Amino acid sequence: MKKIDSGKIFRLRFEKGISQENLAFLSGLTASTVAAIETGRKTNPRIATLMALAQGLGVDFISLFCDDVPSDKKKRGKR
User: Fold this and answer.
1) Overall pTM > 0.90
2) 6-26 burial by CB neighbour count: b if 16+ within 10 A, else e?
């Protein structure tokens, strides 16, 4: 599996304007887990943890790994 870009989690969280504590709450994780992933101290989080983060951030799981994830409209071929 491709390694997680810890900076990507931070950027997504920053764009949403939420704190690590709030993301932890929304994800059902601890703030220390969120911080460890964002800072790269936790380099191999479980898939369930990453899925919880994606849900807390309101993004698709795959967007944690890819920079260019097509929007729902683009997936359907709409403009």
Assistant:
1) no
2) bebbbebbeeeebebeebbeb
Q: Which helix (H) or strand (E) holds 8?
A: helix 6-16
Torsion of CA 40, 19, 59, 62, to 10 degrees: 0
Question: Which residue's structure tokens are 């601890």?
Answer: 30
* CB 51, CB 1: distance < 8 Å: no
The string of pLDDT tens digits covering residues 38-77 is 998 998 899 999 999 999 999 999 888 877 655 443 444 4
Of 37, 29, 46, give the one whose Cα is nearest residue 7: 37
Residue with tokens 């097509």: 70
Which tokens in the block code for residue 34? 């969120």
